[in-house]
UniProtKB/TrEMBL annotation, chains A, B:
Domain named Aminoacyl-transfer RNA synthetases class-II family profile: residues: 34-491
Notes concerning its domains: Consists of three domains: the N-terminal catalytic domain, the editing domain and the C-terminal anticodon-binding domain.
Listed GO biological process terms: prolyl-tRNA aminoacylation
Gene: proS
Organism: Brachybacterium paraconglomeratum
E.C. designation(s): 6.1.1.15
Keywords tagged on the record: Aminoacyl-tRNA synthetase, ATP-binding, Cytoplasm, Ligase, Nucleotide-binding, Protein biosynthesis
GO MF terms held by the record: aminoacyl-tRNA deacylase activity; ATP binding; proline-tRNA ligase activity
Aminoacyl-tRNA synthetase listed as a keyword: yes
Annotated protein name in UniProt: Proline--tRNA ligase
Catalytic activity: tRNA(Pro) + L-proline + ATP = L-prolyl-tRNA(Pro) + AMP + diphosphate
Length: 594, 594
């Protein structure tokens, strides 16, 4: 039994000054967690109880699909992470340290390398596979901006699972099992999630999906359509307009150069076009020039993992901005930074403000990579910089007047953009990544030499999947979803106790009855939180009960003399009176849903 | 059910080359653990099951004394550890690291500081106390010599508890509760322990006891007497001989100087004394000079925590060596290093090989600290260096001819030395530290400002205890204690499964029967490990069963056709035959001890 007179908890009436979101504010105020450093938290007794219940649900669903639990160390040597390239690639997010012999170690952000090596150590035949291994373990990531309490921390608990199969069909089956396990896990946690296509990125895997929980406090943006399409913004592909055929292109007005003094931005260029060439716009019905038909050129410096750099020009419709996250995903593992004045000085062929495509004859072949937005298809007509100051090209047709080195998905996705699968307009939604399932393929097995003998005695590289759930973050998301202005409102399966008994007043009979009921409920298998504090006012006790958020509370007080106690439902706020004789049955019925 | 056909395990017939002790050898060979770096291990599924059972016993006994479980982060900021001095004092054993802002962090070796700060955050009144908090958490220590598998690792799981009381009587009560909880814990783990007085050392606490498990592979030496005295060697106090009174001292032969050419060691001095002054020894009945009466003088350089140094002269009977661990404990927090030739050169008053006490008139008052072994009491008579080359003083009586700045417990403890409490001769024993309970007192609370208001509204510093159990090490100790030449022999309460079912041969009826029995035992609440591997020989299966060490195994094989299966007891090796109809009852009786 948890007695509030001795429980290690202190509720706060004031919000902590650094709390941005409700879950952070309330978990601290209700005494579930305390901050110990930036992005590092302590779990107090009530918080730990919720955490363990979340862990247990995650564990049971992993066990249900044949997952086998193991436990790896956080401290890992550099070498395997060096072999897969992650020692470098992880950048400043990796906590690195040295031991007393000055050997390099890291605190593992995930454990692909070590699982791979351990399977290599234990297994050698196709008969040993498939294998599904997982751990629920403490991870470390030196986040640039830890935020929002438990939503983004630098030390956190994660369930990470890894599958090992001899072939792609096996990987597909393992992946599907985890996908179903994730759906069941989040359902049991009471966390609605949308399964979004995720960008497989530099990891080189084939299939990758995120389980995003839609919430305003989420850090991720994803898109959904009414027809069922869902994707991470990084993974959204653009539905291109139809291209024109050669004959249709030939019939378009010819390209011509015009003087455009000072029109070094899309806004200025659009205004100048409307002044100088009114009614000649190609898109709007009234002939107004629109930003959409101005082809915006942006220049980045790409830094490759080996340290080499090169410029990259991206062309996109003038009414779109580049989405930094989509750009990052599109160029990974390289890193793109905006061209600086010095970069422009080093590449005089790029005339800032008047950059245009190659092949106009305006510039010599530059060797510079030039990628266009997928909306730039053959037959689309644009206004673009002519490669010299104060001059632009009009009626510049892609596929006739210029071409590119390929397309890039870097432009922002907007509400109303069409879903790539034709399932209707997209809606942008904020969400929080709760889980990620990912076909890693053979990247890690190849780097670390994990092979088994197949049925024919031939050595084959094992194919892997990785599957993560943020356990710490799940607690925050659950608190975020289940609260009101008075405090937390835990779902029954995750509450730190089944019932919160409040004894009020100074009457010894009240406390005796509360003890009796508490003991009996506990004997029936319920977890009881009992507010037995002798000199605390009923008002404070009720406020604490609301803040702590146990789903059912039982108030034993003045009414006892008249033969009634109150059963309160935290979520609905309803109160009903029952007699002391009925109370145990009534609470059991509430808790067990009878 | 754990099926060996899919369980993530691989047994090895060969010992790992780096294994020094049985627990390490067998836990690796049986597939319970794997090494991932020096002193860092991975828990495979069977190992994790044992670990969790040990944890749960530790947890239940902490809960039983009102301990409240919390969970702190491993990553901790430097500042609080700086405030208590441990950032420096911990030396190279502390894993230190920096985050991306170059702020200093550490991986906590224990959490005194953070518990103190959290109690300070939550509590403010004597009414909040006593409080007993604990966690079962991953600790990091950069051990100079990780060894013996799980016995000394650099990342390990520890239960650390801390008590908070308003006064010394409260601390005594909290300490006593933990002491009893530890006795129950180790009893449930099946680990005999001796409660040894430990040196409170630099921590400044008052009472400190270690729970040492006697074992040959232990790293600690402790002493016990038949009368019940037990202490860590660092904590043993010397039973001094009786001192003489002034009159008796005055009656002793007068001190005299003698030439002792070349007698710069105790051995040479003893030989020379026997040659030059035969029959004049004061201790042996036959008048032989003994090493015991030669007063050995050793010189050390003490380095204090603030970096200052000073020489220290220690005088002890010539038949004793200094025990480096006792010396270390005696001078802590200073560090003693043996005087080098340069040090001697810097202190010409100290004549190497002929050093004697001050106050003989042989030396001017030197200001050098001079401590004697507790056996040097008033009225004891010695031969000692006269402070000049090739000269010694004979019949040098302590309390008449020389004195000291105090005593020091630095001499080695020997088998047969008397226990300080008069409980008989001491026996030296090897042991492994399984737990440590410790009255910290007010050191941490003072350094970090943890005070509460007492009954009179006065602010008082809280007094603390700390209580640790090495959970990882307990698994190793249990394995070390419970094995034979064939493998592990788990006690029932800690075994990874209750019963190991072995199906042998190729007969489908055997496997069907094994499945049926496994399912039924599982339905009765037993944890079943089932060797369902179809093409593995009975010999290999039996060997694996012995290596894995489940206490009861059940062999279903050829005998089935004649109506018998075998119930085997791992510890005793006994085999008895039962009929398939009886088998479930028989196994239940074995497991539940009916």
């Amino acid at each position: 039994m948890l007695r509030l007179s001795t429980l290690f908890v202190r509720t706060l009436r004031e919000d902590p000054s650094d709390a941005e979101v409700a879950s952070h504010r309330l978990l601290v105020r209700a005494g579930y967690i305390r901050r110990s450093a930036a992005g590092v938290y302590t779990w107090l007794p009530l918080g730990l109880k919720v955490l363990r219940k979340v862990e247990q649900i995650v564990r049971e669903e992993q066990d249900a699909i044949g997952g086998q639990e193991v436990l790896f160390s956080a401290l890992q040597p550099r070498e395997p992470y060096e072999a897969t390239g992650r020692w470098e690639e992880y950048g400043p997010t990796l906590f690195r340290l040295q031991d007393r012999r000055e050997d390099d170690y890291l605190l593992a952000p995930t454990h692909e390398e070590m699982f791979t090596l351990t399977v290599k150590d234990l297994y050698s035949s196709y008969k040993d596979l498939p294998a599904m291994l997982y751990q629920i373990q403490t991870k470390f990531r030196d986040e640039a901006r830890p935020r929002a309490g438990l939503l983004r921390t630098r030390e956190f608990i994660m369930k990470d699972a890894y599958s090992f199969d001899v072939d792609d069909a096996g990987l597909d089956a393992s992946y599907e099992k985890q996908r179903l396990a994730y759906q069941r896990t989040f359902e049991r946690l009471g966390l609605p999630t949308v399964i979004c296509q995720a960008d497989a990125g530099a990891m080189g895997g084939s299939r990758s999906e995120e389980f995003l929980h839609p919430t305003e406090v989420g850090e991720d943006t994803f898109v959904v359509s009414d027809g069922g399409y869902a994707a991470n913004v990084e993974a959204v592909t653009t539905l291109p307009p139809e291209a024109l055929d050669e004959a249709a292109i030939a019939a378009l007005p010819a390209m011509h150069l015009e003087d455009t003094p000072g029109a070094s931005t899309i806004a200025k260029l659009t205004d100048l076009s409307n002044e100088a060439f009114p009614g000649k716009g190609r898109v709007a019905e009234d002939g107004q020039w629109t930003r959409h038909e101005m082809l915006k050129h942006l220049v980045y410096l790409l830094t490759h993992p080996d340290g080499t750099t090169e410029p990259l020009v991206i062309a996109l419709p003038g009414d779109r901005e580049v989405d930094p996250k989509r750009l990052e995903a599109a160029v990974a593992p390289a890193i793109a930074t905006a061209f600086t004045d010095e970069d422009f000085a080093a590449h005089p062929v790029l005339k800032k403000g008047f950059i245009g495509p190659e092949g106009l004859g305006l510039e010599a072949p530059s060797g510079i990579r030039y990628l266009v937005d997928p909306r730039v298809v053959p037959g689309t007509s644009w206004v673009a910089g002519a490669g010299e100051k104060d001059k632009h090209a009009y009626d510049l047709v892609y596929g006739r007047d210029f071409t590119s080195d390929g397309t890039i998905e870097a432009a922002e996705v907007r509400d109303g953009d069409p879903a790539p699968d034709g399932s209707g307009p997209l809606r942008l939604t904020r969400g929080m990544e709760m889980g990620h399932i990912f076909q890693l393929g053979r990247k890690y097995a190849e780097a670390l030499g994990l092979k088994v003998l197949d049925e024919n005695g031939k050595s084959v590289v094992v194919t892997m999947g990785s599957y993560g759930i943020g356990v710490t973050r799940a607690v925050a998301a659950i608190a975020e979803l289940n609260h009101d202005e008075k405090g937390l409102v835990w779902p029954r399966q995750l509450a730190p106790a089944d019932v919160h008994i409040v004894a009020t007043g100074k009457d010894a009979a009240v406390f005796e009855e509360a003890e009796r009921v508490a003991a009996e409920l506990e004997a029936r298998g319920l977890e009881v939180l009992y507010d037995d504090r002798p000199k605390v006012s009923p008002g404070v006790k009720f406020k604490d009960a609301e803040l702590l958020g146990v789903p059912t509370s039982l108030v034993i007080g003045r009414g006892l003399a008249e033969g009634t106690v109150e059963v309160r439902d935290r979520a609905s706020g309803t109160i009903r009176e029952v007699s002391p004789a009925e109370v145990v049955g009534a609470v059991l019925a509430e808790v067990r849903g009878a």
